[in-house]
Amino acid sequence: MPRNYASLSNCYKPLPFNLAQSQQASTTTTVSKKSKRDRASHELRVLRLELGITSATGSALVELGHTKVLCQVIGPTTTSTTTVNMEEGTLECQVQYVPNVGYPITSLVGAAASGLALSSETQQHAQQPTSGRINTQIGGVEKELANQVLSSLAAAVPLKAYPKNVIQLQLTILQDDGSVMSACTIAASLALVNASIEVYDMVTSATVAVMNDEDTTQPKLLADPTYSELEQADAVVTLSLLANWKEVTLWNQSGRLSSTLANEAISLCRDGCRSMHKFMRNALLDFEEPGGQKTTTQT
Amino acid sequence: MASGLALQLSESEKLYLIDGCADNCRLDGREREDIRQYTIVTSSETTSADGHPPLMLSNGSARLILSSSGSTSTHILCSVKVEVMTPSQSQPNQGNLIVHVEDSLAANSSLSRKKNEEDRNRVQSIISELLATNLIDLESLCIIPYHYAFNVSVDVEILSGTAGSIIDACCHAIRAALQNTLLPKVVPSSIVNDAGTSMDPVGSSSSDLMLESDLSLAQTPSGIDNAAVVVTVTVCHRALTNSYLLLLDASLEEEACCFCQVHVAVDAREGTEPTICALRKTGNGSLPWELLPEITALAVKAVPMAKSSFRVAGSSRNNASLLQTQLDIQ
């Protein structure tokens, strides 16, 4: 029997929605893009990992600062749909942003280009994207995240041990404040262990944003960036590692980086993954089944 | 795994293929780092009147044909259409570039529809994430800030993908099409209030912009010569020696037994060090740490080869014969 409550830290106020500030920033292009960061550049945000909070086979809640992701694992179950893979199991992943709350809407409102209006009165309205358009855009992002989480976890699960079965991962993003890909991977990895599904290794993940600092000539590398830091960054690198095997299962870079800077960013990601792994291990070892038994994990 | 035509190979076929790669002799005799030559058909090189681009009604278009040994070929058709739109509030000085990839022939194959759609979306999302901001200079697409800018919409149609290496081919086709795109010269007509005070809010489209009908004033989008090139590095794992082999320009069979693929978009301008603009790893294999710098080094090394390993097919007579041989309805 799972605990029938779970507490979220800082769930009393959603993240501030400040459209006026973002519009002002866009008109005055000479405003310096520095944002105050209240932690060191290599420090992770306040982390919270919880297991076994819903009644699914396995579940995990991960909070990286304000980014909150919930993962539920259902399986291994049989499937009656179309093709059944006879030799190995199938891993399926589904990502969903909580409607109207999860996705950072400031990135969509006012950010869409639109076709020419037919008359001047409707031009103001043409600037705002319709909710239908926002939904299709979010749907694309969700699908992309699902593909990436799937490919970062597929190497860790021995699917040959589960022939003809389907293991479903359902990720719900309660709030996205940057590093959501890493949070999803960590949540999925913990949930798989919580569901007692055999895994070769834990998958950890970290994101690093690279920003060119105007004061110094050295570009800044920020570990575990928030959403506003990601918007201002020149490049973002995401890495998912198999923690003990030290092998890379997901590697993404968007934005220009010279090779030395890219190597530095990847090393910072690796350090982030290493510290994340320690937290994940501790969370698993401290987790108590409600019956009073501690989980036995060899991590 | 990039298109609905993923092959199923038996285990012994996979072993044979990978052992061949280890001996530096792939299925078609190439070495591991050899790239196949492809053919690009854009508008005719000759100045004669019967030369025309593949798609007459688009602002720019290109066809890319990559034929492998035997009868396999990858055939890509790319079309660029330009229209005028209102730029977004957050980026009023920039135009927009959207890349869309369609794989309609694979939809008729016997594989299940859902898997097809996922694979198509995968190619679409990889290409648009890697290339959408790295192709041309978006600020040059602006006509009047806050009011008018160009929206360049690139549509890629995968006519056939049996020679593998679809993502690389799409990127070359997009590049060729954009290099042959002509942006019409658009001049804002003067809008001044009678009282001579600030401009009225720009109203409907018809009276504000004038299109220059002189074709010689049309320009290609700026920045296209420095556009990023995508190189796909395919990683194969040899279980016997527990070693990893890196291949360039993989064929469909090699993609079917590969461990994973890394798509790297490299910006290699003249005179500067090549920088990596975007990178994406696909596939379910896990890469050991030491392999990462090798992969990026190989991708950077391959860019000059990829940029130069094509030939341009020009005249309209060639077009007709290409049509006949390549577009057989099966």
Automatic annotation (TrEMBL), chain A:
Residues 43-198, 201-265 form the Exoribonuclease phosphorolytic domain. One of its GO terms (molecular function) is RNA binding. It is found in: Cytoplasm; Nucleus. InterPro entries: ExoRNase_PH_dom1, ExoRNase_PH_dom2, ExoRNase_PH_dom2_sf, PNPase/RNase_PH_dom_sf, Ribosomal_Su5_D2-typ_SF, RNase_PH. Keywords: Cytoplasm, Exosome, Nucleus, RNA-binding, rRNA processing. It comes from the Eukaryota. One of its GO terms (cellular component) is nuclear exosome (RNase complex). GO terms for biological process: nuclear mRNA surveillance; poly(A)-dependent snoRNA 3'-end processing; rRNA catabolic process; rRNA processing; U4 snRNA 3'-end processing. Gene3D superfamilies: GHMP Kinase, N-terminal domain (3.30.230.70). It holds the Pfam family RNase_PH_C. Belongs to the RNase PH family. This is Complex component RRP41.
TrEMBL record, chain B:
GO terms for cellular component: cytoplasmic exosome (RNase complex); nuclear exosome (RNase complex); nucleolus. Gene3D superfamilies: GHMP Kinase, N-terminal domain (3.30.230.70). The keyword rRNA processing does not apply. GO terms for molecular function: mRNA 3'-UTR AU-rich region binding. Keywords: Cytoplasm, Exosome. The keyword Oxidoreductase does not apply. Residues 73-184, 230-301 form the Exoribonuclease phosphorolytic domain. Its main location: cytoplasm. It is found in: Cytoplasm; Nucleus, Nucleolus. Coiled coil: none annotated. One of its GO terms (biological process) is exonucleolytic trimming to generate mature 3'-end of 5.8S rRNA from tricistronic rRNA transcript (SSU-rRNA, 5.8S rRNA, LSU-rRNA). InterPro entries: ExoRNase_PH_dom1, ExoRNase_PH_dom2, ExoRNase_PH_dom2_sf, Exosome_comp_Rrp42_subfam, PNPase/RNase_PH_dom_sf, Ribosomal_Su5_D2-typ_SF. Belongs to the RNase PH family. This is Ribosomal RNA-processing protein 42.
